[in-house]
Amino acid sequence: MVTSLVGELPPGWRQASLEEVCEFRAGAAVRSSAKGPVPLLKPRNVADGWLTEGPDSISEAAAAGLPGYRLAAGDVVCVRTGGVGRHAMVTSEQDGWIFGNGVIRLRHGDAVDPSYLNHYLSHPSVRDWMKRNAAGTAIPSLSMNTLAAMPIALPPLEVQRSIGQVLDAFNEKIQVYERIQRTTAQLRDTLLPLLMSGTATVAE
């Protein structure tokens, strides 16, 4: 049996490097614009497996000069500086966004399912590998060459898709609960000063 980052692989599984199954590109160095209509993905928008709301933006003219930096649904993005290990899969909602400096885009080939790849990067042993191979101490940084060399365990495609679908369902539930948590916190913060000042009262 083959031993990989995630343990011994079952029959029918194989190991490859990320560069064998993905195309890599580092993000563009571009300034955001308050009035730009094209969303600009930055490291702060990359959460734990999904992308967050509230991206910066750039102008249409600036985006037109960066055709190779457009995101497409199914791309996986990784943070390369600071928050090493954070990653997310691009959905149809982010299709066409520009990805900026500090982000590496992985565009999958035929041998890997994008959802599987996204969840593989969440595996504790894979996260540990990225941290151990990051350069720098104060601000860890993961180079594109280092990430490209990272081993990935590859089950058959149908197994990859099944794994991705199961874990995607969990991610969707987590995102729903996080939105509820944020909304509830905002309501509390709005109500607190009103109650404390007597502007609002509690009905008995």
Write the layout of secondary structure elements.
Blueprint: E1 3-4, E2 7-8, E3 14-17, H1 18-21, E4 22-26, E5 38-41, E6 48-49, E7 56-58, H2 60-64, E8 76-79, E9 87-89, E10 98-99, E11 103-108, H3 114-120, H4 124-133, H5 144-148, E12 151-154, H6 157-197
Parallel strand pairs: 5-10, 6-9
Antiparallel strand pairs: 1-2, 3-12, 4-11, 5-7, 8-9, 8-11
Helix pairs in contact: 3-6
Your description of this structure?
This protein has 204 residues and is α+β, with helices and mostly antiparallel strands. It has one domain (3-156): DNA methylase specificity domains (Adenine-n6-DNA-methyltransferase TaqI, Chain A, domain 2, Alpha-Beta Complex), CATH 3.90.220. The protein contains six helices and twelve strands. The chain has helices at residues 18-21, 60-64, 114-120, 124-133, 144-148, 157-197, and strands at 3-4, 7-8, 14-17, 22-26, 38-41, 48-49, 56-58, 76-79, 87-89, 98-99, 103-108, 151-154. The strands form four sheets. Strands 4-11-8-9-6 form a five-stranded mixed β-sheet.
Quick recap of the structure?
The protein has 204 residues and is of the alpha+beta class. The chain is 35% helix and 20% strand. The protein has helices spanning 18-21, 60-64, 114-120, 124-133, 144-148, 157-197, and strands at residues 3-4, 7-8, 14-17, 22-26, 38-41, 48-49, 56-58, 76-79, 87-89, 98-99, 103-108, 151-154.
Number of strands: 12
Determine the number of helices (DSSP H or I, runs of at least 4 residues).
6
CATH class descriptor name: Alpha Beta
CATH topology: Adenine-n6-DNA-methyltransferase TaqI, Chain A, domain 2
Share of helix, binned:
25-40%
Number of domains: 1
- Structural category is alpha+beta
Shape: globular
Spell out the CATH superfamily.
Answer: DNA methylase specificity domains
Q: What's the CATH architecture? A: Alpha-Beta Complex
Q: Biggest sheet, in brief?
A: 5 strands, mixed
Q: How far apart lie the N and C ends?
A: 68 Å
